[in-house]
Amino acid sequence: MATDAVTLIMNDHRIMEQLFDRLRAGAGDRQLLLDEIAARLTAHSHAEEQRVYPSLPAEMAHHGADEHHEAERMLHDLQRMGPDDESFSTRLDDFIATVGHHIEDEETSVLPALRDAVDPARLVELGAAFEQVRLEELAVAGISVS
Ligand SMILES: [Fe+2]
Ligand SMILES: [Fe+2]
């Protein structure tokens, strides 16, 4: 069933928050979780930048992309840390807070602006375009999603 871009983006935010919770709780293999988060974060960010942000005011799109890049840098640093590094949990909290801020910004400001900018039919088209890029990137990364 076709779903609009706002719903699809918010659903994917919830998936990432669940992965953050598992990582924070120390559940599962840390490196595997980081790899999955990296793949999902990158796929989500690229799909937004390529297919959704172009419908937004340029300044808002640039701000969003800057925040994506900051999150990717922080996550990359976490992936490179050894399992015994004592600063891991502090830096994990920083990363989660940074992404949490970005998600809140999107859900309270960016996505409402998108709803105002395009009509409902276009919002469904953007949803399909977002999913196409996201799922292609996840497939390349070897993450299977239903
Ligand atoms: Fe997002
Ligand atoms: Fe985003």
Task: Describe the protein in words.
81% of the residues lie in helices and 0% in strands. It is mostly helical. The protein has one domain. Helix 2 packs antiparallel against helix 5. It binds fe (ii) ion (2 copies). The site of one fe (ii) ion has 6 residues, from helix 2, helix 3 and helix 4.
Proportion of beta-strand residues: under 5%
Helices, by number, come to 5
Low-confidence stretches: none
Computed structural class: mainly alpha
* Number of β-strand runs: 0
Q: So what's the overall shape? A: globular
Which distinct ligands sit in these coordinates? Answer: fe (ii) ion
Mean pLDDT: 95
Terminus-to-terminus distance? 13 Å
Number of domains as seen in the coordinates = 1
Helix content estimate: over 70%
Strand count, sense and barrel status of the largest sheet are:
none
* Elements, N to C (H/E): HHHHH
Radius of gyration: 15 Å
Write the layout of secondary structure elements.
Elements: H1 5-24, H2 30-52, H3 58-80, H4 88-117, H5 120-141
Helix pairs in contact: 1-2, 1-4, 1-5, 2-3, 2-5, 3-4
The structure holds fe (ii) ion (2 copies).
One fe (ii) ion binds next to helix 1 and helix 2.
Short structural summary:
The chain has 146 residues and is mainly alpha-helical.
